[in-house]
Design a protein that fits this description.
By secondary structure, the chain is an alpha/beta fold. The chain is built from 16 helices and 21 strands. It has helices at about 1-5, 10-15, 50-55, 85-90, 105-125, 140-145, 150-155, 180-190, 215-220, 260-275, 290-305, 315-325, 335-350, 390-400, 405-420, 440-460; strands spanning about 20, 25, 40-45, 45-50, 60, 60-65, 70-75, 95-105, 125-135, 160-165, 195-200, 220-230, 240-245, 250, 280-285, 310-315, 330-335, 360-365, 370, 425, 435. α5 (about 105-125) crosses α14, α5 (about 105-125) packs across α15 and α5 (about 105-125) packs parallel to α16 (about 440-460). It starts with a helix and ends with a helix.
Length: about 475
Amino acid sequence: MAACAFSCSSAAAVKSAVFVRGTESLSVGGKGGRVSIPSTSLSCSFKALSARQHGHCLEGLVKHTVQGEGSCRRKSMAVVRASASETSEGACARSYKITLLPGDGIGPEIMKVAKEVLKMVGQQEGMELAFEEALVGGAAIDEYGNPLPDSSLALCRNSDAVLLAAIGGYKWDNNTAHLRPERGLLGLRAGLGAFANLRPATVLPQLVDASTLKREVVEGVDIMVVRELTGGIYFGQPKGFGVNEAGERTGFNTMIYSVQEIDRIARVAFEMARKRRGRLCSVDKSNVLETSQLWRERVTEIGKEYPDVELSHMYVDNAAMQLIRAPKQFDTIVTGNIFGDILSDEASMLTGSIGMLPSASVGESGPGLFEPVHGSAPDIAGQDKANPLAQVLSAAMMLRYGLNEPAAAQRIEATVFNVLDKGYRTGDIMSAGKTLVGCAQMGDILLHSLSQSTESHAASLTA
């Protein structure tokens, strides 16, 4: 926690300051003395890379932008963290309240693995992690008749970070719209003010052959999709059902975006592209939709504030094709809610398995929401077949960007890569010559690898 860390007099605490890519990191927001983002635009650069390439999986900068008169002034604040050994010697304690939302389907199985990993890494890094669980989605419908009970939302808002597993299932497919599990997720994002969804799609060296596309097409793919999360057709009014002049039943929705909504997500995307490879592709359908015409106009205008970022525009149908034909042309993609929903799922499959990818949903203040990209997979729920690695990597993303604990995050990420290097695979990423394991066994292997890393660290200190 930044305020606590800066007040510590321990010289060792200053010595152990963590910088990301040579730039200071800043918390997404929340309570407990951490920095919360004021009423402007948040930018998070999450670049998922191989540990063998760059030493860690997720790398970047979280900083806030302050909009001036026609300009964007950027600030950053260093976050100093004490190591576990320094904490035991009297440095400020680091305690965090984390709300866990296991949800539906395979959610409870993969959340159990992530929780155990978090507990172990918390002990290793000298953190006090307090976990509370709440119901959301189908489980909440069954218990309370509401996909997002007020008590669940209140608990999330009062947390330092929220870790979600998965929502939905066949059981609730025929429910009326307001009683669908997905409504709980939409309400949660809106209730936390999370307007930016950040979804990396990176092909890991260990899994390059797991992709359904040719190696030469996907090897080296590293894409970040920035999706606007709280506007567009999912939230536009009016919507509903009616009857047309011919007496036929109709359904209608409204796609609407304001200048403010477009501008703030555009700045997030430009900041991210600036910290990645300097290229941003804005995806729309401006040849047909007025909302997309405004989108393109505003993104182009905001782009003038970022002369160092190369901006391009692409129609959504072409973008869907290009992601399969030549995905390495993309660096950072920014798009609206419904287009981002579709394209980010498509991009994730370039990696070989949607079961490997974390994501974050963040806003201008309050806790971030961290979750795996995949769904609830009700067809394999309760069968010990689920891949927990995306959930575990989502926990690492939460530590790095939600709680300012990059060392703990890197410890988890390195463990995941170590386990993959040893050839352990769940069914979704299985290939010839590898060792097939279930969800629970993968969790045990992760914990064993984590414990070995602690022993190795202790040995190096006494050597």
